[in-house]
């Protein structure tokens, strides 16, 4: 398991996480969810809720075949063989590098 640490500005709330995993999700109307709210959404909207995305950063699809089967969202290959995370709610594919910063944006760190 990957451990992570971050600093935060004074008077800012801590990053939302649940048991070491950070959840980020998109609702069907495009709202971003982070933390416990996103984790709760994963029960009814698993294909639009992302967690453990750092394992896919900078990887080719052939390197993460086993890991891609352990998540509820769709992990697909782009035209260059890179990993993309598919989000049916938006009809888009995202790189893992795009999902991770959403957590920081949502809580006001970026």
UniProtKB/TrEMBL annotation:
Instruction: Please identify the protein, giving its name as recorded.
Output: Heat shock 70 kDa protein 6
What species does this protein belong to?
Forsythia ovata
Superkingdom per UniProt: Eukaryota
Please give the Pfam families that the UniProt record associates with this protein.
Answer: HSP70
Instruction: Return the SUPFAM superfamilies for the record.
Output: Actin-like ATPase domain (SSF53067)
Which PANTHER family does the record cross-reference, listed alphabetically? HEAT SHOCK PROTEIN 70KDA (PTHR19375)
- Could you tell me which InterPro entries the record lists for this protein? ATPase_NBD, Hsp_70_fam
Query: What molecular function does GO assign, one term?
Result: ATP binding
**Keyword annotations from UniProtKB, A to Z:** ATP-binding, Nucleotide-binding, Stress response
Does the record's keyword annotation contain Nucleotide-binding?
Answer: yes
